């Protein structure tokens, strides 16, 4: 279809290319109407010279097939006229576009110029209305037809040829609401099919006919329409039963009853029509054959008569079941029961007849567990053939679940009094007792049973509010975790439970659960990644509707010793550390730190020294990891110690890790404090020798020898003290700071001066005053840069500074002026507090330092001591030295000074030691993470 349409369009396009001009004219025009000027409209006259235009003539060419000369006329000068009234429906009956082609010859006198093809399009106007082929139509719907049933009606026809004027829309119009709608569908050929569709099912007994109009409207402007009247007849189907006026008829007769008189006249009504409403009567198969012998039934009228030999004396009650059937195909029927009571003077007990709503057998019926209170359970009918008081009956039912309600004379219904519970009572037995008013009273008891059918009304219940399980890590998959117990007292599918796991945050769980509630792992667990899992168990039963419940489950993963400890300090292996020994302070060197990812006893760590401590010079606190000197260090023990440490956990099996520390120990007796010690030792030896010599002299009894020896000893002692004074050059400066232009390293020299005897008495007072002055105002100038005195002490891989209180002069270097400077005491209160692990990096005044445990703040007062060891150190990465007296020692990187430094003043009479305990920082630093150098001050910028 689409290909054909495209072909037509291409043809029309190619055809239109050859048209010289197109005129449009609406149909229904007046005869001899002017259309246009061909010479002007086609612009052909413009191509002719003006002096020759009067020679141009136009002639309409004649065609053999079509006689169009009767429609159009062209004058010699090109005027174009239509001479007849045009009708598009007559000219182009089956075309959507109506046009005619006119060939015009253009001549210059007798000379042919060209042929002009003129196209005249006749435009359609809406001059026809839609017309149905018939004015009315009758349709038949059956009341058995389903929703959506459709019957066709004829289409309306519009003779207009244009698409707009011939396009028809349909509408259903009715004064009353009708169960029908209009449906229009397009056929394959492009035409339309119109039908009436049933929207709702019909009931002939309610409405047997309908009428409405179908309006067909075209698309013209203004539009026109046509009307079709539709009548619908509803056909009857056999959908109604014959109905009796009563379900049960109760009739009493006595021995004097006339045989030819009908006992009862039954009338069953059927709402259907025709054969579907015709009713016939007959005894049902439930009527016994013996009863049929005593009664006659008229099939057409429904009358019942007694037979001639009716035994009034044998039976008192007869049950007749009569069925009424209609004449439909298939026939429908209904049934009624007639109770014929024969009246006599004897007293008979009442008869109880119970009919349950549900299926029953052997006096047992069934009810659902969710049956509502007040629901109808059974119908109880009481019969007593006696008359008078003997026939009056009263019935009772004593039970907590059922109740007997009176419906009239000798009629009752049993209703539910309280809800049944299958889980508590699956069978319910009750008894109906009926008693008449005769003398004596006759009583009838009948017992019935009701089976309660279970429904899913109980939610599964867990025996705990929360389940907690413990499991070790690293167990294989499918390892049992625990058992979740849920119960459901419902029977059948309502008691069949299924279990599943889910977490509130929809995370994947490494557990699975069976339908018996056993939880196991799906993969090995790692306590270090997650030590506790909290999720929920969902239990569902299989009843209808499915009921569910949830419970929280907590699984705690217990630790196994599966992680070896590792050192966090030293952070590299091996690690280098330089240290000086001072015996008068704390012997702690450094603190090793390790960490274990396990928990509890598996993470309880112990430290040991494995190798390198053959001299037993070091000791290790096995719990804190603090490395200390175990004793005093001698001069010959200075050197490099390669110590191998091990840290062990307390798990089973025990796991451990080792690390090595290269410790360079500096211990020299050439320092100033060692000189005092040597002097004291020498004095002690002299005194011992003197003592021995006195004893020897006393034994020998030589008084002269004793006196001589005493004089010699005294002179020897004075010579040694004089020699001691000469070893110290009092002219040396305390600090010498040299600046080299080749690099930025610092060189600090130290030479403690001797104090003159005349200033000895005022030394303590002078130092105290200087100390207070230095704390208030002090600046140090190194390499031409001013450093604030409150810059904390730090040790880096490039330089270490230890500053002591002493007046000093800076010597001129390379022609620079000498500036006086003083060293202030470092205020320990400016440091940050130690963290819990006794080691932290702290940013203070623009620098970083690491603080070790076991360090103490400086003492505010000077102390005196009889003996001590003293070392002064200053170190830098490239060029540094420390000096005491007349000896030099090359400095080292990563030097740690763990003890306070002392300032000593000496004279011939005594040795006074002024001790300032400085706050000590970690002097070591990791090669992988060096600390920053001293920050620049404002003067540097």
UniProtKB/TrEMBL annotation:
Protein's cellular compartments: Cell membrane
Stretches that traverse the bilayer: 690-714
UniProt cross-references to InterPro entries, sorted A to Z: Cadherin-like_dom, Cadherin-like_sf, Cadherin_CS, Protocadherin/Cadherin-CA
Membrane topology: Single-pass type I membrane protein
GO molecular function, one term: calcium ion binding
Domain Cadherin: 39-132, 133-244, 245-352, 359-462, 463-567, 589-675
SUPFAM superfamilies reported in the protein's UniProt record: Cadherin-like
Keyword Protein transport: no
Transmembrane helix among keywords: yes
Gene Ontology CC, one term: plasma membrane
PROSITE patterns: CADHERIN_1, CADHERIN_2
Residues in the signal sequence: 1-18
Alphabetical UniProt keywords: Calcium, Cell adhesion, Cell membrane, Glycoprotein, Membrane, Repeat, Signal, Transmembrane, Transmembrane helix
GO biological process: homophilic cell adhesion via plasma membrane adhesion molecules
Main location: membrane
Protein name: Protocadherin beta-15-like
């Amino acid at each position: 279809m689409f290909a054909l349409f495209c072909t037509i369009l291409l043809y029309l396009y190619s055809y239109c290319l050859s048209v010289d001009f197109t005129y449009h004219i609406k149909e229904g025009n007046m005869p001899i109407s002017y259309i246009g000027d061909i010479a002007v409209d086609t612009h052909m006259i413009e191509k002719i010279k003006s002096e020759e235009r009067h020679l141009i003539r136009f002639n309409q060419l004649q065609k053999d097939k079509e006689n169009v000369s009767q429609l159009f006329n062209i004058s010699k000068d090109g005027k174009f006229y239509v001479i007849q009234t045009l009708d598009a429906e007559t000219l182009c009956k089956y075309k959507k576009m109506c046009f005619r082609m006119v060939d015009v010859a253009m001549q210059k006198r007798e000379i042919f110029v060209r042929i002009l093809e003129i196209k005249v399009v006749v435009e359609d106007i809406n001059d026809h209305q839609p017309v149905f082929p018939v004015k009315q139509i009758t349709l038949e719907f059956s009341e058995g037809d389903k929703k959506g049933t459709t019957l066709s009606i004829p289409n309306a026809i519009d003779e207009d040829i244009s698409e707009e004027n011939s396009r028809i829309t349909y509408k259903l119009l009715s004064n009353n609401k009708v169960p029908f709608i209009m449906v229009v569908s397009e056929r394959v050929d492009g035409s339309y099919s119109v039908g009436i569709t049933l929207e709702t099912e019909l009931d002939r007994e309610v409405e047997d006919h309908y009428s409405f109009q179908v309006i067909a409207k075209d698309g013209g402007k203004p539009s026109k329409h046509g009307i079709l009247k539709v009548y619908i007849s509803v056909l009857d189907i056999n959908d109604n039963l014959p109905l009796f006026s009563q379900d049960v008829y109760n009739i009493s007769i006595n021995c004097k009853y006339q045989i030819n008189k009908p006992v009862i006249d039954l009338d069953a009504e059927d709402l259907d029509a025709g054969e579907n409403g015709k009713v016939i009567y007959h005894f049902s198969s439930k009527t016994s054959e013996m009863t049929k012998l005593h009664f006659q039934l008229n099939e057409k009228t429904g009358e019942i008569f007694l037979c001639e030999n009716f035994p009034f004396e044998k039976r008192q009650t007869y049950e007749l079941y009569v069925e009424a059937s209609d004449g439909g195909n298939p026939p429908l029927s209904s049934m009624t029961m007639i109770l014929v009571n024969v009246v006599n003077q004897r007293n008979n007990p009442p008869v109880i007849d119970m009919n349950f709503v549900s299926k029953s057998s052997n006096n047992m019926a069934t009810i659902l567990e969710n049956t509502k209170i007040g629901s109808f359970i059974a119908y109880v009918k009481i019969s007593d053939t006696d008359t008078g008081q003997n026939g009056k009956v009263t019935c009772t039912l004593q039970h907590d679940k059922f109740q007997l309600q009176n419906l009239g004379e000798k009629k009752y219904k049993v209703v539910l009094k309280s809800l049944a519970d299958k889980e508590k009572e699956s069978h319910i037995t009750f008894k109906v007792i009926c008693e008449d008013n005769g003398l004596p009273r006759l009583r009838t008891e009948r017992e019935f049973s009701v089976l309660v059918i279970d429904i899913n009304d109980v939610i599964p219940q867990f025996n705990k509010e929360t389940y907690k399980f413990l499991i070790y890590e690293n167990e294989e998959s499918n390892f049992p975790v625990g058992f979740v117990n849920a119960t459901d007292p419902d029977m059948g599918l309502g008691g069949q439970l299924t279990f599943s796991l889910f977490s509130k945050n929809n995370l994947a769980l490494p557990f699975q659960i069976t339908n018996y509630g056993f939880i196991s792992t799906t993969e090995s667990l790692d306590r270090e990644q997650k030590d506790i899992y909290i999720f929920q168990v969902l239990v569902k039963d299989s009843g209808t509707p499915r009921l569910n419940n949830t419970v929280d489950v907590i699984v705690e993963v217990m630790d196994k010793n599966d992680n070896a400890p590792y050192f966090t300090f030293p952070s590299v292996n091996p690690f280098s550390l330089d240290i000086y020994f001072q015996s008068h302070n704390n012997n702690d060197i450094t603190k090793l730190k390790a960490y274990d990812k396990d928990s509890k006893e598996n993470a309880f760590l112990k430290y040991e020294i494995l190798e390198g401590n053959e001299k037993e010079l070091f000791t290790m606190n096995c719990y804190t990891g603090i490395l200390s000197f175990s004793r005093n260090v001698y001069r010959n023990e200075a050197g490099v110690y390669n110590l191998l440490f091990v840290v062990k956990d307390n798990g089973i099996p025990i796991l451990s890790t080792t690390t090595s520390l290269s410790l360079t120990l500096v211990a020299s007796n050439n320092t100033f404090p060692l000189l005092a010690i040597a002097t004291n030792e020498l004095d002690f030896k002299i005194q011992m020798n003197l003592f021995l010599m006195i004893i020897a002299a006393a034994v020998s009894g030589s008084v002269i020898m004793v006196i001589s020896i005493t004089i010699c000893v005294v002179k020897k002692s004075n010579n040694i003290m004089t020699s001691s004074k000469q070893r110290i050059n009092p002219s040396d400066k305390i600090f010498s700071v040299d600046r080299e232009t080749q690099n930025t390293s610092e060189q600090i020299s130290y030479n403690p001066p001797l104090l003159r005897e005349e200033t000895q008495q005022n030394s303590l007072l002078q130092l105290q005053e200087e100390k207070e002055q230095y704390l208030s105002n002090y600046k140090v100038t190194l390499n031409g840069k001013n450093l604030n005195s409150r810059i904390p002490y730090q040790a880096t891989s490039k330089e270490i500074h230890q500053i002591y209180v002493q007046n000093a002069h800076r010597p001129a270097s390379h022609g620079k002026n000498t500036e006086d400077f003083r060293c202030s005491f470092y205020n320990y209160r400016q440091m940050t507090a130690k963290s819990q692990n006794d080691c932290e990096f702290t940013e203070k005044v623009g620098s970083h330092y690491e603080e070790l445990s076991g360090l103490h703040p400086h003492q505010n007062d000077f102390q005196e001591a009889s003996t001590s060891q003293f070392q002064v150190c200053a170190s830098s990465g490239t060029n540094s030295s420390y000096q005491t007296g007349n000896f030099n020692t090359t400095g080292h990187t990563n030097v740690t000074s763990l003890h306070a430094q002392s300032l000593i003043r000496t004279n011939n009479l005594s040795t006074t030691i002024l001790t300032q305990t400085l706050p000590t920082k970690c002097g070591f630093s990791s090669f992988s993470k060096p600390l920053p150098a001293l920050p620049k001050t404002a003067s540097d910028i």
